[in-house]
Amino acid sequence: MKLAKTLKKTKAQVRMTETIAILFVFFILLIFGFIFYSKVEVRNMQLQGSQIQDQKAVEVAEIFSFLPEIQCSKENIPAHNCIDIMKIDAFSSLIENKPEYQQYYYDQFLRSRITVNESYPDSSVSFVVYDQVPDKWTKKSSTQIPVAIYNATGDPTAGRLPYYAFGIVYIDYYS
Amino acid sequence: MDSKKGVIEIQFNWIFILVAGALILILFVAIVQRQGSVSNQSRDIDIRSKLGTILTGAKQSTNTLFIIDIPSKTEINFGCNGYSVGGTSPFQLGESFSPGKIKSVSNNIFLSSSDWSLPYKIANFQYITSPDIRYVIVSGSIYQGKLGEILPQNLTISIENPSSVVNNNNYKIRYILISDKDGNGMGTLPAISDNSIQKMKDEDVTAIHITVSKEGRDNPFDGYGKVEFYTKSGNSFPSVSSPAKFDYIKKESLVGAIISDNNETYNCVMDRAFRQFNITTNLYLKKAEQLNTLYSSGGAFAFQCNTPGNEYLNAVDLLNKMIASDVTNSEIYDYAYKSKTTDTSLKISNIELLKASCPLIY
Fold it and tell me: Which of A97, B58, B238, B309 lies at a 20 to 30 A Cα distance from A65?
């Protein structure tokens, strides 16, 4: 009688332990599934973030290409992919000397560095137009845009007429 | 005793199953709810990012209407800090004008942009609006037929008597009154007679009163004047609390005032535009000073560009006046196009330089 009682009690305990073990395994599997799903989601979000950064880099390049402050113009008709060297000279010195202008252009160019280099005929001509490289960054997206650089005055001392030079705009966007 | 124990054991099993089941159910409900909110946030971020790219691209193409499809039930909010979708952080788009809320039952929005020049290009003004917003030009307004020529295409515009305007299920209605500085045209807005328009939210029924002080050459609105913003209160239009009266200069800024239904937002965007104007003017000033120094110092081309009016020096003088702190819009307009006193302007100087084949100011 006593043995039967003990056996019944043990059976119930085994059944209980079984149920708890099943639940435990179920939760373990659930946690594994959740961790796997989270990892995939984090990876997707990183990819999406990277795509957004690339888009931002293209946006900065697009905004700079169409900036009226530096574009060549004749009678207020802008010439695309053309930069007026006198305007870019004035622009870079204004941005460098006035912090409030840097702040104003930060909304458009964010954390980037924009340089205009003349390639031909004088490869030594270079302007740092905007420079807001952060101290710490994880990704850099670079865009290069070939442009014409217009010199409206030429070189009167050398008897040289106004001319166009070839140049490249380098836009490095940091995130 | 045995059967009693059995009953307790069975009851305990059921309680255990119930508790465990409820916990599992709560867990899944929580996951589903969280996932729903994450999915909405992700959708908003996606729309915001794509919208930003589209708007930036569209801003560069002036005088072109873009009809952009947006996901259903999307609401784009616009304020001084820029555009935002859902709970996302707002993004700035420079000189951009919009009503406070943009939505559309046909799931599309209109984008267009125009360049704002005084007389050189300062910025592209972008206008973003919805086909579901109705613009009512109050009949009897001066130049009423000319306003449609400067507004973006495809807008829902009509010339009507306010008392005959009925609700066509537009989510916003904007009344436009126009008068000149002598008071010709419509100066005051009659009360709203349509019951359903009276019941619309106050901020959704607005009015603008345009006073044309100086007509432009090609279009009367291309000069300068004043705009006053009104918001409905019951069935009338008391003036919005100060500052609700602003100057406009050139038709592009006037269109901005018509598209914006909020005086604070309009003021904010125009502040930004005038900051851009100051920067651009400073650049042209520097360029004009350089050219003046170069050609007045007697270089090889100096004889050619030594024009009778000394246009570079004249430009330096005008540009300096344009960025003076106390300059008014009417003075800027005169310095740019024609001065009242000296009969010179930047535009005239530039034409003279063009005739002499000299480097232009702009």
Answer: A97
